[in-house]
Design brief:
Helix 1 packs across helix 2 and helix 9 packs across helix 10. The protein is an alpha+beta fold and 450 residues long.
């Protein structure tokens, strides 16, 4: 098709495309459209396919012109974006046209559309970037803490012999608020509530108040809550509770020995085997977390040094995706989630505005990574993917065959390939920039801000 085009760059990675289709093409498309009407039109007094063209133009002139215009725009636009990949419209950006062109078969046809395109960013300058690498050493205390957590997870909860409430006991209680006349407020009644004393995992925070109580004992407790108390219904109020202890239990912590190790996993023969495995797993987690921190720092600095705007349609799609994901987490629909949020005193609009800043940074980071992978021609070989399979198998305590089976799904395999490309990119960049030692921190501190 014969046409000319001009492109004007707009704000936020949008463009204005103006196309002029030559009059010969206009006439050709119009005549083909008219011929289709002639072939298929059924009008009383004429045989199908034999209706004169001038009759059809008088009766369906506007429809014929509208269809011809649509064909001219579709054909020329498709040809343009097929040849010009850099100005291909984003899949979630519908091209808009403020004014439809008028068709005159004796003249050129000109139309203008606006739409969002993928942001263009060239990252060339890495000067001044300094990525700090946290300094973390896994200690025997870190391993001991993980062992203690494993003991807790494998503990048996058994009845306590003296049935007296102490810190760390697992208790079952009934509770209810009392009014000024000591009558029970039915709406506040709760039965068979179970929690660990000292955890604070109860609405009224009665951990210290029930210390020394025995099974089947009841007690009235008066509590005054600070105006900034976490539960708004209790904030600034004084309430009287009636609490009854129904059961007092303790956790029977298993001994740290070879038998415990074997019970946790049959691959362990001794407690030392389990300790070594725990430390190896912690080392893997540490290295992965440090790399994540380094990568995030690098991307934040690259985003700061390479300012560019992202399309509104791209940001809106990202926010909509986060909203739908949140609805899935709450096991509800996006529409029902909005009603829930509104009932809690917030609005969907407020939440989306709060998410906007982080979403913009995340999108810009993705765009920069994509741009660098393309500009540096980063690719992965079959041998590199095989090496990734072996690495994943070693870290996860699986066989290579099990890992490969997991990645049989094309989407999972594609995700692994993309991740491997990114890691190769980061490795290349870290050779070009300054990586200095960061703060010393514990293993727990390393994961404290996740």
């Amino acid at each position: 098709m014969k046409f000319t085009k001009s492109i004007k760059n707009l704000e936020k990675s949008a463009i204005e495309l103006t196309v002029t289709v030559e009059k010969d093409e206009v006439a050709d498309i119009y005549n083909k459209t008219l011929a289709k009407y002639v072939k298929n039109a059924q009008i009383p007094g004429f045989r199908k396919g034999h209706v004169p063209a001038n009759v059809l133009e008088r009766k369906y002139g506007d429809s014929i012109k509208a269809e011809a215009i649509e064909s001219l725009i579709d054909l020329s636009f498709s040809e343009i974006v097929k040849e010009d990949k850099d100005n291909y419209p984003l899949p979630y950006s519908q091209p808009s046209m403020e004014k439809m062109p008028e068709l005159d078969v004796t003249k050129d046809l000109t139309y203008t559309v606006k739409y969002d395109v993928f942001p263009k960013v060239e990252v060339k300058n890495f000067s001044g970037i300094n990525v700090k690498e946290p300094q973390v050493t896994i200690t025997d205390d870190d391993v001991a803490e993980e062992l203690k957590a494993m003991q807790e997870r494998n503990a048996m909860v058994i009845d306590k012999k003296d049935e007296t409430v102490e810190k760390d006991n697992v208790v079952t209680i009934d509770y209810v608020e009392l009014d000024e006349s000591k009558n029970e407020i039915e709406s506040t009644k709760r039965q068979d509530f179970v929690f660990t004393v000292g955890s604070g995992e109860n609405l009224y925070k009665v951990d210290d108040d029930i210390l020394g109580m025995k099974k089947d004992e009841s007690k009235e407790i008066t509590k005054t809550f600070d105006k900034n108390y976490e539960d708004s219904d209790l904030a600034g109020k004084t309430v009287t509770l009636k609490v009854t202890v129904k059961a007092v239990k303790i956790r029977d912590i298993p001994a740290l020995d070879d038998d415990f190790a074997q019970d946790c996993n049959e691959k362990y023969k001794t407690l030392q085997d389990m300790k070594d495995d725990i430390k190896n797993n912690m080392e893997t987690a540490k290295n992965r977390r440090i790399r994540e921190i380094k990568n995030n720092s690098l991307l934040e600095q690259l985003v700061e040094k390479n300012q560019f705007e992202i399309p509104d349609s791209m940001l809106q799609t990202e926010l909509d995706g986060r909203w739908k994901m949140m609805a899935q987490q709450f096991q509800t629909t996006p529409e029902q989630l909005e009603k829930m949020i509104t009932a809690s005193g917030q609005t969907k609009e407020t939440m989306l505005n709060e998410w906007t800043g982080n979403s913009e940074k995340m999108l810009k980071s993705r765009i920069i990574v994509d741009s660098l992978i393309r500009s540096k021609n980063i690719s992965v070989t079959t041998e590199e993917i095989e090496a990734e399979f072996e690495k994943i198998a070693k870290e996860g305590g699986m066989t290579v065959e099990e890992v490969k089976k997991h990645y049989e799904d094309p989407r999972s395999k594609e995700y692994l390939i993309d991740e491997t490309k990114e890691n190769k990119l980061y490795d290349e960049i870290y050779k070009e920039i300054k990586v200095s030692k960061g703060d010393k921190m514990s293993f727990k501190e390393l994961f404290s801000n996740i």
